[in-house]
Amino acid sequence: MSPRNKVCILGSGNWGSTAARIIAENVTKLPSFDNTVKIWVYEEIVDGKKLTEIINTHHENVKYLPGHKLPHNVVAVPDAAEVVKDATHIVVVIPHQFIQHLLDTIHGSTRPDARAISLIKGIGISNQGMTTMTQIIHRTLAIPVSSLSGANIANEIAEEKYCETTIGCSDPDEAIVWRSLFNTPYFQVNCVNDVIGVEFCGALKNVVAVGAGFIDGLGLGNNTKAAIIRIGFLEMRRLAMHISGAQIQESTFMESCGIADVITTCYGGRNRRLAEEFVKTGKSMTQLEKELLNGQKLQGYLTAGEVHSYIDSRGVNDHFPLFTNIYQICYEGKPPHSIFDGLNVDFSNDTRTPSPAL
Ligand SMILES: NC(=O)c1ccc[n+]([C@@H]2O[C@H](COP(=O)([O-])OP(=O)(O)OC[C@H]3O[C@@H](n4cnc5c(N)ncnc54)[C@H](O)[C@@H]3O)[C@@H](O)[C@H]2O)c1
Ligand SMILES: O=P(O)(O)OC[C@H](O)CO
After folding, report:
1. What is the pLDDT of residue 260?
2. Distance CA 147, CA 91 (A)
3. Confidence check: pLDDT of 354 > 60
4. Do residue 169 and residue 246 come from a single domain?
5. What domain range is 288 assigned to?
6. 178-182, 207-211, 245-249, 285-289: least confident range
7. Measured in angstroms, how far is the CA atom of residue 341 from the centroid of ligand 1?
8. Confidence category of residue 358, pLDDT binned at 50, 70, 90
9. Centre of ligand 1 from the C-alpha of residue 102, in Å
């Protein structure tokens, strides 16, 4: 009999803990998988006790997913290298700002035949340009990496409210395995052969969410927010196509990771909520994150900065007025009302390939 596959999870925040619930239930029904699911927990002290000990004793991540029990086969471990060392399937789900440090920690500890999937919504910036999380993970670990993203507010999924998600995977056989680990009656997975299209959608929608929050903070209505969602969606597609048009399928934007995630994030996400507070209180995003999120992390305002550094360095700001305005409101003290400046952009000539105008 061949040895069983083992899945592990790197990250135990709000989404990481919710994903752990799903995966840990699914592996018990998959004969090819070991039942134990190790999860790496960034160790911290909660009410005088280590978070790993609380999770392993009470089977609940009381800080990041309170009120939802984790299956008993989820085992919290504070050492990331220990978590990955015998895993065949590695689920990476941490805030994107911490990815490189985590990868450096586990470098050399993974199995050569392991594969990974990124649930992270974020991008990286380097001298070479913009990089996706799967590209960053692949560069360090040299294993195949897929992506998962969708209209997925973690708390709603933990309550088992029906939703969809998208897996981007280039190998059809691997896609089947990843789907078997995530799919449930309430969490419907669709697989597409477009790894980076899925993750560009997941990362860039967080910038649009910040814009939607500004609209709510200004007390404007649904029509205004719909306009921001529409323009934001088109700027997302334009930027993704500009960077990697040849590799991205236009149809990906119509999956859960695309249009559906933009909608849910602009109504129910943390980035939206804190952007509303930003306008109402005048406090910085970092201050609001500390005051209101109890350790959870925002991705949107960081991604707005990363996107800006890319489009500014290439002199294409005029093609992305909404992303530019959101950046300037977040970082340069521009008034929230300036979000409407120069938004009358023509997207009608955007095609599959990078726009010649860019
Ligand atoms: N929460 C959601 O609804 C949701 C849904 C889909 C995707 N995502 C994405 O999933 C990713 C992870 O988000 P989340 O919601 O699980 O996390 P979170 O924001 O709820 O929690 C933050 C996590 O970061 C950890 N952390 C703090 N400092 C750290 C450090 N220095 N190094 C490493 N880890 C550190 C904390 O322990 C905690 O686990 C993000 O990219 C997010 O956009 C989140
Ligand atoms: O709470 P947010 O803003 O990080 O968004 C959560 C999810 O990404 C929505 O799909």
Report:
1. 98
2. 9
3. no
4. no
5. 197-340
6. 245-249
7. 33
8. low
9. 13
Residue 122: its pLDDT value, please? 98
CA distance linking residue 294 with residue 254, whole number of Å: 33
Using a 6 Å cutoff on CB, does residue 297 contact ligand 1?
yes
- Asked if residue 286 is part of any domain, the answer here is yes
Contact 24, 77 (CB under 8 A): no
Q: CATH number, domain at 326?
A: 1.10.1040.10
Instruction: State the pLDDT at residue 349.
Output: 86
Residue 67 burial (CB < 10 Å; 0-12/13-18/19+)?
Answer: exposed
On whether both 294 and 324 belong to a single domain, the answer is yes
Q: Are residues 168 and 219 in the same domain?
A: no
Same-domain pairing of 149 and 225: no
- Residue 315 falls in which region: left (phi positive, over 0), alpha (psi -120 to 50) or beta: left
Helix (H) or strand (E) run with residue 51 in it? helix 51-58
Q: How far apart are CA 116 and CA 298, in angstroms?
A: 23
Is the C-beta atom of 12 inside 6 A of ligand 1?
A: yes
* Beta-carbon contacts of residue 15 (< 8 Å; ≥ 6 apart): 93, 119, 152, 154
Q: Give me the residue label for tokens 């590209």.
A: 135
- The rounded Å distance from CA 154 to ligand 2 centre is 8
* Per-residue tokens: 10: 């790197």
| Angstrom distance (rounded) from CA 75 to CA 83 | 10
In this structure, are 183 and 229 located in the same domain? no
> Is 161 an active-site residue?
no
Rounded to a whole number of angstroms, the CA Rg of the chain reads 20
Q: Does the C-beta of 63 come closer than 6 Å to ligand 1?
A: no
Same structural domain for residues 218 and 276?
yes
Residues 281 and 183 in one domain: no
The residues, any chain, with a CB within 8 Å of residue 212's CB and separated by 6 or more, are: 225, 228, 229, 232, 265, 266, 267, 272, 275
Percent helix / strand / coil, the chain, rounded to 5: 50, 15, 35
Ligand nearest to the CA of 96: 1
Domain count, the chain: 2
15 lines ligand 1 (CB under 6 A): yes
Among protein residues, the one with the nearest Cα to ligand 1's atom 30 is 98
Q: What is the pTM of this model?
A: 0.97
